[in-house]
């Protein structure tokens, strides 16, 4: 039976309750989804604090210790992973994130991140570019990338 | 000789493809459409088209250019093109860069944050101090800058340029302008900044179409505070301009504005801005015209590339009639 039909059978108050629960569960899904940080074998360290990761993705830290320029790889903000990344790393919605980066680039303070449609494209980009770092929702099997532990954990 | 040519050819062969593959160029832009109601009539206008280009040339070198196309009645084609920024960055270390070229003088928060991107402006127009030429908007020269250093996210700019009265390609005198600015972000989104600008304007220099009959030593001091949070937005900035001539001594002008907005819905921000220009009697470098203005309006952000603003503006000035205007703007990024 379709959800709509089930909802129609419920009395008014219960209907509202179910709608609220559905909305809450959808909203919290993006907060709960686990993320994985990956980096090119050159540049990014194997372990980072979450605050350090945020500083990198906010454009506040632009070079790795070895001098490599940090290249940020993000899933597009219309993808579920992109939306989760916006919320968890940036504390922004998709629109705010796009505005944030456009402003930063326009001010000459940072180079724009690369946005991708698929996880495999993002992983390939990170693998091929020294200094690159990206966020995924699950580990992928691509050579020349390393998984970065965040606060000692594989996912965050 | 043949060996040298061979070696050079090899170097070119192996270097050019590397540079080409490293290059990453993006072209973006801004434009806006205006409707103004003043003096019992409505007018339509497009303000200017702003194109900006960024390019990463190598791991260390990048470029940013900003050019504006706008209406200019004195031009044969009714339009003119102005190069607003042309900057080559060379990364020195971490977040520290060498900066070469034409920049928006880093003395003013608004000047270095919004540039010509009308879609970013919190209000429709820039503060009064821009139209009054209180600060030098552009400087051609060389400098260093850095940002997000340490826990308080310290940032700095030090820039030496040709100064007022110069052209884009030649200094009119031996004096160089110096701009020094520092800022910190001690807590999330709260930015505090101070800056100083010094220049000596030679007698006979042409500054914004005004010929100087005196040698002027100019010092500008600016302080700014800004916080653009999820709900509440505030930006306040004040400049003290001290112009010294041998005949008039030092005269001080204060130019200030304060903006506040509050996001009442996801896309809707009502706002207000108050501007004040106050010149000391005897001021001869600026065109003395004590003015105040108030703007009140709201901003509707369709998305980050399309913003509508509707605003009421009232301006009172010493030399001109009071003005009342209602302006609507549709600003876009592309």
Structural notes for this entry:
The complex is a heterodimer of chains A (156) and B (334). Chain A is α/β, with parallel strands linked by helices and 156 residues long. In chain A, 45% of the residues lie in helices and 17% in strands. Chain A has six helices and six strands. Chain A is globular and about 35 Å long. With 334 residues, chain B is mainly β. Chain B has three helices and 18 strands. Chain B has a 16-stranded antiparallel β-barrel with strand order 1-2-3-4-5-6-7-8-9-12-13-14-15-16-17-18. Chain B is globular. Chain A binds chain B through residues 55, 59-63, 68-69, 95-96, 98-99, 102-103, 105-109, 111-112, and chain B through 24, 26, 28, 52, 54, 56, 59-60, 62, 64, 85, 87, 89, 91, 93-95, 112-113, 115, 117, 120, 147-148, 153, 301, 303-305, 333.
Would you tell me the overall average pLDDT of chain A? 85
Task: Sketch the major β-sheet of chain B.
Answer: 16 strands, antiparallel, barrel
The most extensive interface between chains reads: A-B, 21 and 30 residues
Please state roughly what percent of the residues of chain A sit in beta strands, choosing from under 5%, 5-15%, 15-25%, 25-35%, 35-45% or over 45%: 15-25%
């Amino acid at each position: 039976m379709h959800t709509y039909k089930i909802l129609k059978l419920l009395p008014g108050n219960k209907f509202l309750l179910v709608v609220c629960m559905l909305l809450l569960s959808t909203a919290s899904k993006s907060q709960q989804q686990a993320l994985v940080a990956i980096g090119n074998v050159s540049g990014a360290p194997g372990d980072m604090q979450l605050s350090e990761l945020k500083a990198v993705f906010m454009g506040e830290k632009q070079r790795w210790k070895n001098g490599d320029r940090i290249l940020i790889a993000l899933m597009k903000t219309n993808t579920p992973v992109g939306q989760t990344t916006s919320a968890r790393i940036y504390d922004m919605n998709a629109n705010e994130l796009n505005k944030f980066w456009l402003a930063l680039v326009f001010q000459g303070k940072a180079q724009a991140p690369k946005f991708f449609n698929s996880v495999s494209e993002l992983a390939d980009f990170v693998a091929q570019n020294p200094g690159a770092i990206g966020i995924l929702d699950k580990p992928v099997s691509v050579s020349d990338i390393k998984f970065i532990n965040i606060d000692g954990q594989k996912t965050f | 000789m043949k060996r040298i040519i061979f070696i050079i050819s090899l170097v070119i062969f192996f270097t050019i493809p590397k540079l080409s593959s490293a290059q990453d160029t993006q072209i973006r832009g801004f434009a806006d459409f205006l409707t103004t109601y003043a003096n019992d009539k409505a007018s339509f206008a497009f303000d200017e088209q702003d194109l900006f280009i960024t390019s990463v040339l190598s791991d260390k070198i990048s470029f940013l250019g900003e050019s504006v196309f706008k209406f200019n009645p004195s031009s044969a084609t009714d339009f003119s093109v102005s190069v607003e920024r042309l900057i080559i960055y060379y990364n020195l270390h971490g977040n520290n860069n060498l900066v070469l070229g034409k920049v928006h003088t880093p003395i003013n928060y608004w000047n270095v944050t919004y540039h010509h991107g009308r879609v970013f402006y919190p209000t429709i127009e820039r503060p009064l101090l821009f139209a009054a030429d209180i600060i030098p908007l552009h400087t051609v020269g060389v400098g260093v800058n850095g940002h997000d250093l340490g826990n308080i996210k310290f940032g700095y700019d030090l820039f030496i340029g040709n100064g007022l009265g110069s052209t884009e390609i030649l200094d009119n005198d031996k004096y160089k302008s110096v701009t020094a600015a520092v800022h910190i972000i001690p807590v999330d989104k709260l930015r505090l900044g101070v800056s100083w600008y010094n220049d000596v304007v030679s007698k006979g220099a042409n500054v914004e179409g005004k010929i100087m009959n005196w040698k002027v030593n100019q010092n500008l001091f600016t302080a700014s505070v800004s916080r653009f949070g999820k709900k509440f937005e505030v930006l306040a900035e004040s400049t003290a301009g001290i112009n010294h001539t041998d005949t008039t001594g030092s005269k001080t002008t204060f130019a200030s504005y304060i903006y506040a907005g509050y996001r009442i819905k996801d896309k809707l921000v009502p706002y207000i801005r108050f501007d004040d220009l106050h010149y000391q009697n005897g001021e001869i470098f600026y065109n003395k015209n004590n003015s105040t203005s108030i703007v009140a309006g709201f901003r509707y952000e369709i998305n980050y590339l399309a913003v509508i603003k509707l605003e009421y503006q009232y301006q009172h000035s010493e030399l001109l009639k009071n003005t009342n205007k209602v302006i609507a703007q549709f600003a876009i990024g592309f």
